[in-house]
Amino acid sequence: MNKYYSLVVFGNNKRVNLKKLNRELELQKSQCLEFFKNQIEININFLDSTITSFSEINNLLGNLKGDVFILLKIEYYPKDSWLKNIITSFDKSHHSILIGKITENNLLFNWFKQEKNNQEDIVNEIEKYIGNCALKKSFIEPILCLKSAYNEREKSCYKRIFREVETEILYLENVEVVKL
After folding, report:
1. 41, 44, 62, 87 — which has fewest CB within 10 A?
2. Is the overall model pTM greater than 0.85, yes or no?
């Protein structure tokens, strides 16, 4: 059975050259299909909306098919082999969340600390890097159900649990996008 990847490009599409971005994503998609010998499926979705918080992912994922959801902000342009590096990383590891590097004008725009702060929870990490990250559906669905099912006071309980699963996040330098 093929693994299904859903690439979601989100944001205000009036601010960028969609044709150039779409050409690059289609090129990377075809390279991936060839590299993985058509053992995967990739669907590219363009959404003219913003996603700024973890809770907004809940509405988005409910309408999409996929084993892995790859989120890309529309004003970020993927570097060579970006998509292949994401898919390869998920195939070779047990990780459920992948976060990539974001640069702007050859300067580091947004990147993780080398030494992680144990107090930082998984929700905050995903929200910080939401423009260049990928999430396994099997891992994220139960979290999203919890997020919407409980009030703020009850949510503090499961946020403590997220801190324990921080090792589920894989940070990769070769999954890089450039902020336009």
Report:
1. 62
2. no
Contact 1, 39 (CB under 8 A): no
Report the CATH number that the domain containing residue 132 is assigned in CATH: 3.90.550
- DSSP lists the bridge partners of residue 3 as 40
If one counts every other C-beta atom within 10 angstroms of the C-beta of residue 120, the result is 15
Tell me: the pLDDT tens digits for 4-58? Answer: 999 988 887 666 678 889 999 999 999 999 999 988 899 998 887 777 666 666 6
135 Cβ contact list (under 8 Å, min separation 6): 57, 68, 69, 71, 96, 97, 98, 126
